[in-house]
Amino acid sequence: MSNQEYQVTRSSKAARVAAILGAIVVVILIAAPWWAGRADMRLMGEMFLYLALASLWNLMAGYAGLVSVGQQAYVGFGGYMLFALTMFAGLHPLTAIGLAGVLGALISVPVAVLIFRLRGAYFAIGTWVIAEVFRLSFAQVSALGGGSGSSLPVGIVKSLADARDTREALSYWLALGAAVLVVAAVYFFLRSRRGLALTAIRDNELAASSLGIDIWRTKLVVYIVSAALTSMLGALIFLQKLRISPDAAFSVNDWTAFVIFIVVIGGIGTVEGPIIGTLIFFALRETLADLGTVYLIVLGLVAIVVMLKAPRGVWGLIRSRFDLQLFPLRYRVIRSGSSKGA
Amino acid sequence: MPDDILRMQGLDAHYQDFQALYGVDMHVETGEVLAIIGANGAGKTTLMRSITGLIANGPGQILYRGVDIGGMRADQVARLGLAMVPEGRQLFPSLSVEENLVIGGQMGRRGAWSLEKVFALFPILKERRAVPSTSLSGGQQQMVAIGRALMSNPDIILFDEISLGLAPIVIKDIYNALPGIIGEGMSAVIVEQDITKALSVSSRVYCLQEGRVSLEGASATISREEISRAYFGIQ
Amino acid sequence: MTTILKLDAVCKAFGAVKVADDLSYEVAQGEALGVIGPNGAGKTSMFNLITGTLAPNSGRVVFAGNDVTSHNAARRCHAGIARSFQVPQPFSHMTVFENAMVAATQAAGLREHAAERFCIEVLEQTGLLAKANTTAGSLTLLERKRLELTRALCAKPKLLLLDEIAGGLTEAECVSLIRTIKDIHASGVTIIWIEHVVHALLEVVDRLIVIDFGRLIAEGEPHAIMDSPAVKEIYLGIEADA
Amino acid sequence: MEWLNAIVQGALLGGLYALFAAGLSLIFGVMRLVNIAHGDLIVLAAYLGLTVTAATGLHPLLALVVVVPAMGAIGYALQRGLLNQTLGDDLLPPLLVTFGLSVIIQNGLLEVYSADPQKLDAGALETASLSVGGLSLGILPVLTFAVAVAVIWALQWTFYHTSLGRAFRAVSDNQDIAQLMGLNRRHVFGLAMALALVVTGIAGILLGIRTSFDPSIGGGRLIFAFEAVIIGGLGNLWGTLAGGVILGVAQTVGAKIDPGWQLLAGHLAFLFILAVRPNGLFPRVAA
Amino acid sequence: ANPVLRVGHVSPRTGPLAGFAEADDYVLEAIQKTFAAGLENNGKTWSVEIISKDSQSNPNRAAEVAADLILGDEVDIIVAASTPETVNPVSDQAEINEVPCITTDCPWQPYFFGRNGVPGEGFMNTYHFFWGLEDVIAAFLDMWGQVDVEKSVGGLFPNDADGNAWGDAENGLPKPLAAAGYSLVDPGRYQPLSDDFSNQIAAFKEAGCEIVTGNMIPPDFATFWSQSAQQGFAPRIVTIGKALLFPSVIESLGERGEGLSSEVWWSPNHPFSSSLTGASAKDLAEGYSAASGRPWTQPIGFKHALFEVVADVIRRAEDLEDPAAIVETIAATNLDTIVGPVNWANGPINNVTKTPLVAGQWQKDGDAMELKIVANSTAPEIPTTGELKLLG
Ligand SMILES: Nc1ncnc2c1ncn2[C@@H]1O[C@H](COP(=O)(O)OP(=O)(O)OP(=O)(O)O)[C@@H](O)[C@H]1O
Ligand SMILES: Nc1ncnc2c1ncn2[C@@H]1O[C@H](COP(=O)(O)OP(=O)(O)OP(=O)(O)O)[C@@H](O)[C@H]1O
Ligand SMILES: [Mg+2]
Ligand SMILES: [Mg+2]
């Protein structure tokens, strides 16, 4: 019996088909300014931003075991940095978005040092408190409007592009780019050695550390990268919103609760989950949002029902039914060509 | 049959899609020590968990003193007088040693076992009664696990891997204590990998193989060859 | 003969319980050392001190000539120490194969493809290959223990620490386990093995140490140690004068 | 004197926070359940109080006779009907389910009671005060503090000195094995949630007397409650009281420096304590 | 068929600000009735479709739905009301997307300065009518001047859009109060939803304040007010913006609600009537009370007036297809509405015009609490209905 009979594979036919279809979809989406209406583009842009946020949150919670309910800290921080850098430093909005990411990474380091002392639920609450501290601190900065908030001067928005159509296309492409970049980055990261380490940490820290994985550093890297990218997304989001205030920027509902909803409905701990979740969330929102309180009650009910009936989310259901992986991460050991029994 | 305290009839058990037990027929006579042996993964733990209600099974598959306990919850089964010393000890970490024992007796079933009696059986536990159970060594924890089960004054007690991870001296102590434990009219089911040990303390033995009973017999008369055949299914 | 591991007056206490009390000994490169002692003597704790899961109150741990006392577990693993856990610690949501891959890629630092081949080899050696695609969380206790061994081997250690891996095995399984460990030892890996299944231990180890209350109370040729009155009394429970 | 006043008022405020936190601490300790809806349940209790006082004309404190058992029953039903199904090693299902619950309660209250701020009218109790060493203390905050101490004493006693408490701890450690001890975990958890919501009921009524409330104010209360629990250290209810007091004092002292710092100071105190004592000030030894 | 003109409407139907929008359904229904036959413009009849969306009291959501209305529903005019949290994000979206926008129900300083408006430049597409802080101050001073109290005022300003504007050293209360001889004790901006006001109370006591003023949300005021009693602080006049607008809030304070005072933007006694329906202020308020069984509230008038302005603009616009023409028409408005004259030519600053403001006090009238107008020298055309009584 030789182990030459065994082979390890990480791909599947479904995945290869999905990759091709995915590429086609992305190309179609890139062309949206030529076929979609303004409202559709705006909606899709928002969906992409949520998809990116959700993928990052999924990376943290679903893979690194960092369940944060405080990612709004970085969304808001990025948004405020966009305002500060464009209004006071006179930077071009695109430069400001990039720089917001860098600053987000920088500020996340001391935050991480502090809250990494916490585990599980403690960590979750710790992140929330951090976000509150961010909110209350920015509320004290009167140059940025304090608690009242501030609007982005029209001139700055127009510096993106003079014509409204170009501007709208540009901000659409930025959102699309962000989503594709984040999903791809998360996927390739998870396929790498470090991704394997991360999954191991999520399952068992004691074992991971005694197999040579530096837990603290691995988590720190994930946290910082998420913080940086989330800050950039925050800057992008508030470039569309045009107005920022502490309550809006650091809203736990808008930037974390809905994101968690998306990830969990779609399927946590899978790359596909956030994509499905985003589609479902927006479908619900577009059909029900005008019902006001009823919409929110429905959202709450959906979250509960999914959690109880399908804790691995919609993608989890699909995967267990069809053994399907569009973004294959698992290793499969298969016996090649042999028909011998064990 | 009036002498049966426990009877399994066509017991099946599943973990999601995976079937771990296939139509197991088995009985335990009142007052006897029954041994169950079998290779890893044969389904011994699954059997014990099914009996105690931790794994759901169909109605009519398990009778306890003639009563169908197949569909009951674990706590209901426990109240009827079944106790288990689980595989891997599984003490309550946030309870002290003494509380771990006391909670075993919280159903208020009457009988011979009390805190004093358990402490007399395992004196080291009395010494360490106030410490959290987590700070005991593996062997000491096994003593607590046994004491905890005894405290409920069960009519039948199930031991899963009774000697796993224990120093010879402790195993010896526990086996020495066994007659005293059983002596009170209690029945016992013991899962033990050390076949010699298993045969020496039991009156009858069942061998499980891949979820099925592959051998049944009186401990005193059963032969080694029969056993190894039953273990691995080698004809 | 070079020393690969040296414990130098290591002390560790949990409150009043001393799990390591002035513990000093050396292990030679390529040796197989057995460890016995009553339950609660501090054997597992000693492993925790060697791997860096526990920090000592005082004393030093020297591995391959370097003082590693202040290094964390991950760093010591990279230096070549791997262990199995007495209470198995699988990555429950990953498959058996992925569990092995973690060790091969992170601890042994193998590249993807080499790691895959190596893991298959080790899984075959430890008899888990048939379960390669099974989620570790659904293994039985004993399969989990075997997974512990597999993972430790996949880390390609210089020093392998085994904590009660023979418990609960049938005789046949035990024989095959002994063969596996002998093979590993023969390939040059230094082994420290804690085991209550003494006959298995005696088949493999060159030397035996006995721990009680965190202290080293006896050390030497295995059979001689087993015959010593102290071991008979505190460990085997045979009265010395009987 | 002004500083002393700030500290004393803060400590009394801490009593209210400790009451918010006590129920949370209990269920967190027993079930490892992070109840995001806790703040909204406090508000729900206040609204129940409102309904009872409006319907019967009872004094809000007397309304406790109805509200407390009602909250207990809601807690038991909620746990058995819904939350029991979410428990496990995973942190997320309870987090998300209680988040959903929070949204439902909040918007349900909005549908039923509208967004109008409401208040429980406790008559003279609201404005009565007593003078101690030159400080003017409201009877209501003093009463709240005393209730907090009593509630926490009772919970602590229940937890560590009764068989119910032992059952709580055992089930929280290992549900399967606890079942083998004849404990029905669903029932035990139901009782724990019932007890927690009993405390929440008391907290809600006292909140409703102290300040006006509307369906949206739960979230802010939730975070204070969590902070108090964590500052105090898990599993230690006296610690939770201390956590509440620290939070209250930090807020009033912060506000003394600048009112804008009131909430911030509370959070910073929380983070500071985490930085120096990650397990809280008084974690239960060896848990 | 007639050409269709779409009007987008954003208001906080749900959430903590929902009180401001509670009469929306009633007002919109009446408006839709008057629009049913269509509006005349340049000899053509236009059907007017009002699309109303809920901001959920959330500024993020307000921006979101405003963008939806503009991009998705392609509305020709967008309107919004109720606090800077709704008005500002909607206006910002309108400005950048070049859609004519009319807003109300938010003092003009937080509207103008809160959006980084530059005096002299203003905005391209967005217009606002309401009153300003100078009017509040004048009305308050007018009221306080009627009685003989210590001229020491305690200020309670939260760190939100309204609070920052009211407490602003340059454009807010401090300067004019000082000019009128009042000393203002302002401990600083507090965070909304505070549980404790001991420090403010101690400071007010220390300074011997007999007047308390500020702009608060109802829960904060309730907390402050009972703590004041507990801690032995008994001011003679308490005049608070926003928190004391709604009868439901006063009712929830019980006995202690009596005698509190507030600004009055609109009441059934205002001597104005609708340019659309001809109804008087009294008719509108009573109509609402009859229909809903609830007491009237001040935003009702402004919500109605908002659509009066819309109707007027639609009738007058030179070219309803051209946003720029609509904006021009808005700027040229001169209309007497149910809340008073709206004419952007007289604005205090670009894009803003003001309606009259007086001050009132909640007084017991039989069983119910009623907001009596007690000071009107800022707008003498609005009759007083009572006299200021001191607290305590
Ligand atoms: N939680 C689980 N999920 C899925 N399969 C399981 C689970 N637990 C056990 N099994 C499977 O059920 C079968 C029987 O397991 P069981 O634990 O009963 O065996 P056992 O005889 O006690 O073995 P051991 O001697 O290793 O303890 C095994 O094939 C095992 O892989
Ligand atoms: N984290 C801890 N806190 C407190 N006490 C501990 C801790 N870990 C171990 N101990 C105590 O240290 C002693 C030694 O434990 P250890 O697990 O090392 O024993 P062992 O020799 O491996 O025993 P066994 O053979 O039963 O596994 C025991 O008495 C145990 O109670
Ligand atoms: Mg087993
Ligand atoms: Mg050990």
UniProtKB/TrEMBL annotation, chain A:
<feature type="transmembrane region" description="Helical">
    <location>
        <begin position="47"/>
        <end position="66"/>
    </location>
</feature>
<feature type="transmembrane region" description="Helical">
    <location>
        <begin position="220"/>
        <end position="239"/>
    </location>
</feature>
<dbReference type="Pfam" id="PF02653">
    <property type="entry name" value="BPD_transp_2"/>
</dbReference>
<feature type="transmembrane region" description="Helical">
    <location>
        <begin position="97"/>
        <end position="116"/>
    </location>
</feature>
<feature type="transmembrane region" description="Helical">
    <location>
        <begin position="123"/>
        <end position="143"/>
    </location>
</feature>
<dbReference type="InterPro" id="IPR043428">
    <property type="entry name" value="LivM-like"/>
</dbReference>
<feature type="transmembrane region" description="Helical">
    <location>
        <begin position="14"/>
        <end position="35"/>
    </location>
</feature>
<keyword id="KW-0812">Transmembrane</keyword>
<feature type="transmembrane region" description="Helical">
    <location>
        <begin position="259"/>
        <end position="284"/>
    </location>
</feature>
<protein>
    <submittedName>
        <fullName>Branched-chain amino acid ABC transporter permease</fullName>
    </submittedName>
</protein>
<keyword id="KW-1133">Transmembrane helix</keyword>
<keyword id="KW-0472">Membrane</keyword>
Automatic annotation (TrEMBL), chain B:
<comment type="similarity">
    <text>Belongs to the ABC transporter superfamily.</text>
</comment>
<dbReference type="InterPro" id="IPR003593">
    <property type="entry name" value="AAA+_ATPase"/>
</dbReference>
<keyword id="KW-0029">Amino-acid transport</keyword>
<protein>
    <submittedName>
        <fullName>ABC transporter ATP-binding protein</fullName>
    </submittedName>
</protein>
<dbReference type="InterPro" id="IPR027417">
    <property type="entry name" value="P-loop_NTPase"/>
</dbReference>
<keyword id="KW-0067">ATP-binding</keyword>
<keyword id="KW-0547">Nucleotide-binding</keyword>
<dbReference type="InterPro" id="IPR017871">
    <property type="entry name" value="ABC_transporter-like_CS"/>
</dbReference>
<keyword id="KW-0813">Transport</keyword>
<feature type="domain" description="ABC transporter">
    <location>
        <begin position="6"/>
        <end position="235"/>
    </location>
</feature>
<dbReference type="InterPro" id="IPR003439">
    <property type="entry name" value="ABC_transporter-like_ATP-bd"/>
</dbReference>
<dbReference type="GO" id="GO:0005524">
    <property type="term" value="F:ATP binding"/>
</dbReference>
From TrEMBL, chain C:
<dbReference type="InterPro" id="IPR027417">
    <property type="entry name" value="P-loop_NTPase"/>
</dbReference>
<dbReference type="InterPro" id="IPR051120">
    <property type="entry name" value="ABC_AA/LPS_Transport"/>
</dbReference>
<dbReference type="Pfam" id="PF00005">
    <property type="entry name" value="ABC_tran"/>
</dbReference>
<dbReference type="InterPro" id="IPR003593">
    <property type="entry name" value="AAA+_ATPase"/>
</dbReference>
<keyword id="KW-0067">ATP-binding</keyword>
<keyword id="KW-0547">Nucleotide-binding</keyword>
<dbReference type="Pfam" id="PF12399">
    <property type="entry name" value="BCA_ABC_TP_C"/>
</dbReference>
<feature type="domain" description="ABC transporter">
    <location>
        <begin position="5"/>
        <end position="238"/>
    </location>
</feature>
<dbReference type="InterPro" id="IPR003439">
    <property type="entry name" value="ABC_transporter-like_ATP-bd"/>
</dbReference>
<dbReference type="GO" id="GO:0005524">
    <property type="term" value="F:ATP binding"/>
</dbReference>
<protein>
    <submittedName>
        <fullName>ABC transporter ATP-binding protein</fullName>
    </submittedName>
</protein>
<dbReference type="InterPro" id="IPR032823">
    <property type="entry name" value="BCA_ABC_TP_C"/>
</dbReference>
TrEMBL record, chain D:
<feature type="transmembrane region" description="Helical">
    <location>
        <begin position="6"/>
        <end position="29"/>
    </location>
</feature>
<keyword id="KW-0472">Membrane</keyword>
<feature type="transmembrane region" description="Helical">
    <location>
        <begin position="130"/>
        <end position="155"/>
    </location>
</feature>
<feature type="transmembrane region" description="Helical">
    <location>
        <begin position="259"/>
        <end position="276"/>
    </location>
</feature>
<keyword id="KW-0813">Transport</keyword>
<dbReference type="Pfam" id="PF02653">
    <property type="entry name" value="BPD_transp_2"/>
</dbReference>
<feature type="transmembrane region" description="Helical">
    <location>
        <begin position="41"/>
        <end position="71"/>
    </location>
</feature>
<dbReference type="InterPro" id="IPR001851">
    <property type="entry name" value="ABC_transp_permease"/>
</dbReference>
<feature type="transmembrane region" description="Helical">
    <location>
        <begin position="221"/>
        <end position="247"/>
    </location>
</feature>
<comment type="similarity">
    <text>Belongs to the binding-protein-dependent transport system permease family. LivHM subfamily.</text>
</comment>
<keyword id="KW-1133">Transmembrane helix</keyword>
<protein>
    <submittedName>
        <fullName>Branched-chain amino acid ABC transporter permease</fullName>
    </submittedName>
</protein>
